[in-house]
Hints:
Blueprint: H1 4-9, E1 17-20, E2 24-28, E3 36-42, H2 57-73, E4 81-85, E5 100-104
Antiparallel strand pairs: 1-2, 2-3, 3-5, 4-5
Organism: Marinobacterium aestuariivivens
Domain HIT: 4-113
Protein name: Histidine triad nucleotide-binding protein
Amino acid sequence: xxxxxxxxxxxxxxxxxxxxxxxxxxxxxxxxxxxxxxxxxxxxxxxxxxxxxxxxxxxxxxxxxxxxxxxxxxxxxxxxxxxxxxxxxxxxxxxxxxxxxxxxxxxxxxxxxxxxxxxxx
Length: 121
């Protein structure tokens, strides 16, 4: 399998890992969009949200719990943060192994893409 995140899991590619357990790991995004930007991924390869089954409920729930833990540990849980799951190319997914973005440390605009619009929302 030629999956970037699977290669990170296998330690074939280095990453700045900030959390790890038997079901998931989290590492800093190499192109951060906020002062804190991490990706939380399951150890099991799941191509996209479209491939999730009812058996994956625990996995996805665990990713969200890890995100909340990271927000608390890094001091921005009380102020707030953004989590984001992209699905397929039109949804902005560029690595096809599900991953939860966790962004914090600054106020986030709404909608998430507002800064790219030519006219204010």
